[in-house]
Amino acid sequence: MVRKKQNKTKAPFYVIVFLLVFTGVFLGIQFFTKTGIFKIPGIVYYDEGLGEEEITLLQTIFTDEINLDKDVYISAWESFEKPEEKNGEFLYQIFVPVADFYDARTDISEYADGEFEFINIDELDFTKKLLSIDEKYYLDNFDAGAKFRILSFTSEKYDEEIKPLVEEVMTKVFPQKDTVLTFAQTGVTALSRGMNAKLNTIGDATYFAEKISDFLSGFDLTHTSNESSFTDYANSRNICSDKRFINTLTAIGLDIVELTGNHNQDCGDEAARATIDVYNENNIQIVGGGKTAEAAAEPLKINKKDNGITFLAYNLSTGGATYDNTPGANQYYEENAINEITAAKERGDFVLVDIQYYECSVYDYSYENTACDYADSSAGDQIGFFRHLIDLGANMVVGTSAHQPQTFELYNQGVIYYGLGNLFFDQIWWPGTTRSLILGHYFYKGKLLQTKISPSIYDSSMQTTLMNKADAAWFINRLAKVRP
Fold it and tell me: Do 160 and 193 fall into the same domain?
């Protein structure tokens, strides 16, 4: 019997094929995937321009456990104009120029050296003075007036690899026009006496606001303390307003009228009530006064752009307050102030308190008299009383009775502006009474970022306008030097 010879090479052939395929796949994986033992992972390169804090943050993202397929280069650069962010670029920080709170300067050059510093926008608050850069104020335009720091990520696989890692961490929210509440607060307005006579000559009440209307109406909220009521009996001798003067107020975009003044009843209760109706018809909110004592005492609660403000206004002066069902100003009572401030703080609101206090009347016809610059120039203890309101919990106290501006100060976690002067009035014979301080408040996420002082002035034309930069710096410095 003949036996067939067995084929002993068949099994080893398949084994060899298998081993070759396995080896090829294995080696392919090692060479062509980022986890392979022969594959060099992507490297993270940190530019020397990056700060230590930035590198520390980036290293929490690109840890040793992260295996990149491609290298990534991270760098930083700065600009005085907000750049348009390209793919792989993130606005990481905004640095704004600030000086001491009492510094008279308002503006610096892009290349200036001096007593100021750049701070992170997150650190800005009202205790520092924000400066503009080459006339560009960051809180007014948000695209200039600051140094904008950009972090840039460059990689061949940015969208696939890097973007998912960094986008959430690097994307930040900064103050913008739609999130910052701007609030202009002005002093005494008394559209009366000589202004009535002027109006009869001019015929158009918007004339008086012509040079200031664009500035004031540009704020989200605009306030003034109006001391005169509208009536048909207004003339060149009384503190009553021609009814056409409502057009002066609407021309400046008035949103809030304060009625703590001591002259709103000069033309009678009927005129005072009718004037309140005119404000209501023009959607102008009222604080510190009303048709009755109960209405006058009602706080004005402002909730806008994620900011809560309680606005309280009181009369503590020579008259004008209501105690019953007659119209008038909100009389100051200590118990009421304590309760209202406490309730506002419990709501988490910023508390703004305006006071119609005793006036300084040391005026002079022939030269600049600085007596009224001082906060202690009025009857009574003005400094002690205003500071007491801060001690009760108010964040800001503002005097709205002074016919010429007074000094200002930081005090015990708050800020005080003792007197704002005349925004609109006919007092042209005393140099001091033709000026005022316009306070431009900037609120963000319930916090007062800044109050910008813009001095105004009028002359025999009775047209209010902003002071030029040099005069404004001189005047702010004059007031700051006599602070308590």
Answer: no
**Cα separation of 128 and 95, whole Å?**
14
Q: How far apart are CA 409 and CA 418, in angstroms?
A: 8
List all residues 6 or more positions away from 217 whose beta carbon is below 8 Å from its beta carbon.
251, 252, 253
Which residue's entry shows tokens 């005097």?
Answer: 399
pLDDT in tens, 345-375: 999 999 999 999 998 888 888 788 899 999 9
In the predicted structure, residue 318 carries a pLDDT above the cut 90 = no
Average pLDDT, the chain: 92
Pick the last residue of a domain from 121, 148, 170. Answer: 170
* Nearest of 312, 317, 419, 336 to residue 371 by alpha carbon: 419
Question: Cα angle vertex 371, ends 480, 459, to 5°?
Answer: 85
Site of tokens 């975009």: 253
Whether residues 143 and 185 share a domain: the answer is: no
Rounded to whole angstroms, the Cα distance separating 151 from 48 reads 13
Residue finishing a domain among 146, 170, 194: 170
| Four-point Cα dihedral 139, 141, 144, 147, nearest 10 | 30
